[in-house]
Write a structure and sequence with these properties.
The protein is an all-alpha fold. It contains 13 helices and two strands; from the N terminus they run αααααααααααααββ.
């Protein structure tokens, strides 16, 4: 080792010794120093007046009040919205029915477009064919009812006589005088309420006029949505704020996919129900089997409640026309088909895409019927299914957007929402916007 290296080692050792001595001296001074006196308590002088009321309210009560007034505002908004919808119920229901018809017919228009047929011609062929099919079914039902009306009337009268005989011989000890008193009371009620019955008849005429007006408006809505649905959707997006336009543009195709899946699945399930129940009541020799099957098909569009109502109607007709044994057999057929629908058809055809809890279905159907009667009950469940899909998508969209630092996520959102300039508008093509998660109307 050279002298220079030895000198460096000596200097380093000397520096370490000096540092250790300084540290020891500092610790010794700290041990020798007297302890510091405790800090004097801070005395807060009381305010001149009483404390503010807000500081006296418990925290839980404050939270409950904050949530309460927000819920009141939300309830007020919902109440006003329901009142507005009730005021324009004919317009809203016509548009909703037209949207459902469009969801049913749009795949046919898209298939014809892929075969090279023009948009206008494809729309006209699909619409005319659909309306003609519905008209033929309606005419056939009316014809069957008129053909079997006389026989059904005689069977109803015979059923009433059989019911009267059964009551007289039943263990309930019903006498003929009591039955005659019930019949007389019914006749007296009809005579005393003839004015109300007549008024109800005029109200029925008004309802029929409104029904045909709404049906005509729904047909016009269907035509325009089938022909130019994409441009209508693009025009609707202009009313959405630019910040939220990307999410709404991505949620639209998802909502349309849910709606079309619901309508097609419901039509298939309703047809299977009507077919098997119709065959059952036909072989049981129940009159007007075909009209009853059509009614079962139509009532199947109202989940749970519609199946109960149509099944009850079939059982009543069987009871009046053929007696108790036939009515029980019809009830068995209806229950068997309904079990097949609930456990096999619904999960297999509709799947999880439009899955709504049965409690939600019952509440939706009840609320829709209270607001708009039978049309409200028909449209309530698809509205709930679409809202469920939209809310779920927007929640995922917000999470992905936050994960990517505000950028539009990839997938259906980027494809349907990101425009050429990145403003969130859908990409325009020769026939409308680019395809998103599902094809919309107006292919």
């Amino acid at each position: 080792m050279s002298r220079l290296q030895r000198l460096r080692v000596s200097v380093s050792r000397l520096a370490e010794q000096v540092t250790e001595r300084r540290e020891r001296a500092g610790r010794g001074a700290e041990d020798a120093a007297p302890p510091s006196p405790p800090a004097a308590p801070v005395v807060v002088s009381p305010p001149d007046g009483p404390p503010p009321p807000a500081s006296m309210v418990p925290w839980g009560v404050r939270v409950a009040a904050e949530v309460g007034w927000r819920l009141l505002i939300l309830a007020g908004v919902i109440y006003v919205l329901v009142k507005v919808i009730s005021a324009f119920s004919l317009l809203v229901l016509a548009f909703a029915i037209g949207l459902l018809i469009t969801a049913l017919l749009q795949p046919t228009v898209a298939r014809l477009r892929r075969l090279g047929i023009g948009r206008g011609l494809a729309t006209m062929i699909t619409f005319v064919t659909g309306v003609a099919a519905i008209g033929l079914v309606g005419w056939f039902v009316v014809w069957q009812v008129m053909e079997n009306l006389d026989d059904l009337t005689k069977q109803v009268q015979g059923g009433i006589e059989e019911l009267k005989t059964w009551l007289l011989n039943s263990p309930f000890h019903v006498t003929e005088e009591q039955i005659n008193n019930v019949a007389d009371s019914l006749n007296d009620w009809i005579g005393s309420n003839s004015q109300e019955i007549t008024s109800a008849g005029w109200q029925g005429v008004t309802v029929v006029v409104e029904f045909f007006s709404g049906a005509l408006l729904a047909l016009f809505v269907s035509i325009f949505l089938l022909y130019d649905g994409r441009r209508v959707w693009n025009w609707t997006l202009n009313f959405v704020p630019q910040v939220a336009r990307g999410g709404v543009a991505g949620a639209g195709p998802m909502a349309w996919a849910t709606l079309t899946s619901y309508v097609r699945g419901t039509v298939i399930v309703a047809f299977i129900d009507a077919f098997f129940i119709g065959i059952g009541i036909y072989f049981l020799d129940v009159p007007m089997a075909v009209p009853l099957a059509v009614f079962i098909f139509l009532f199947s569009f109202i989940p749970i409640v519609g199946a109960f109502a149509s099944g009850t109607l079939a059982v009543l007709v069987a009871f009046v026309a053929q007696g108790m044994v036939t009515a029980l057999l019809v009830l068995a057929v209806v229950l068997a088909v309904q079990q097949l629908e609930g456990h096999v058809l619904q999960p297999l055809i509709l799947g999880r895409l439009v899955s709504v809890h049965p409690l939600g279905v019952v509440l939706a159907v009840t609320g829709g019927s209270l607001i708009a009667g039978i049309p409200g009950a028909v449209t309530a469940v698809p509205v709930v299914a679409v809202l469920n899909t939209v809310v779920t998508y927007l929640r995922k969209y917000a999470a992905e957007n936050a994960l990517h630092g505000g950028a539009v996520p990839h997938g259906a959102t980027a494809e349907a929402a990101a425009g050429p300039s990145g403003t969130g508008a859908p990409k325009a093509g020769p026939d409308g916007p680019a395809r998103g998660a599902a094809d919309g109307p107006g292919q």
